Amino acid sequence: MAGTAVFGGSFNPIHYGHLLLADDIRERLSLDQVLFVPAGQPPHKTPVGIAAASHRYQMVKLAVAGHPGLAVSDLELRRPGPSYTVDTLEALRLPRQGLFLLMGSETFLDLLSWRQPRRIADVARLVVIPRTGSAFDTESAAALKVLRDIGEDRFATVEGGAVPERGVLVVHAASLPISASDLRRRVREGRSIAYRLPDPVMAYIRSAGLYRSEAR
Predict the structure, then answer these.
(1) Which of 60, 94, 122, 126 is the most buried (most CB within 10 A)?
(2) What's the Rg (C-alpha) of the chain?
(3) What confidence tier does 1 reach under pLDDT thresholds 50, 70, 90?
(4) How far is Cα 66 from Cα 161, in angstroms, rounded to an integer?
């Protein structure tokens, strides 16, 4: 299934957990690429502790360099105001059958609080990735309400092989127990962040003086 999966987020900073998930999704869905889209102004996060968008973009660019199936876009950095996903998807101008949007299961359950959630599902196929170690009940009232309100009629599990042509896709992708908040805390405390993110990203954090205090 040729196509592009959009992987949005603050990437504050990007780490091996993000990269492993993206590579696994690309392979499982047989995609051309996974496109990282760092948020310029994340509408659901407070600005405290979030590095400047230009820094976060450069770190993602360093992290995906040399990987033919991973790419990065500065689309949300060039657009003023909050970074709404629906605007990003529409700006990409890709056909729905070739455009996928990656999101965690917790994010999916919160999707109705986003701008134009039904439009999001109209322009891209949703790929829900349950967090390792936590259950995502596709039969729960909360999940079914989101499914109904965005105009979808089913969840479709992707465990390998052919990708179903209809429904919100649920993919149990590979993951690592690494969190960006832990990395920021380690930098503030002067602790090691080695083996948790690519060396060029680690060097960039050091040279730019990022995350030395919570206010950065």
Answers:
(1) 60
(2) 17
(3) low
(4) 27
Other beta carbons less than 10 A from residue 193's beta carbon:
20
Q: Where does 23-104 show beta strands of DSSP type E?
A: 33-38, 70-72, 99-104
Domain assignment present for 131: yes
Boundaries of domain holding 77: 4-208
The number of beta carbons lying within 10 Å of the beta carbon of residue 44 is 12
Q: Residues 10-14: what's their mean pLDDT?
A: 97
Q: What burial letters (b/e) apply to 121-143, b meaning 16+ CB within 10 Å?
A: bebbbbbbbbeeeeebebeeeeb
Assess if residue 58 is contained within a domain. Answer: yes
CA distances from 48 to 2, 52, 85, 215 (A): 38, 11, 21, 6
Q: What is the pLDDT of residue 43?
A: 67
pLDDT per residue over 25-48, tens digit each? 999 999 999 999 999 877 666 666
Q: Are 9 and 39 in contact (CB under 8 A)?
A: yes
Overall number of domains in the chain? 1
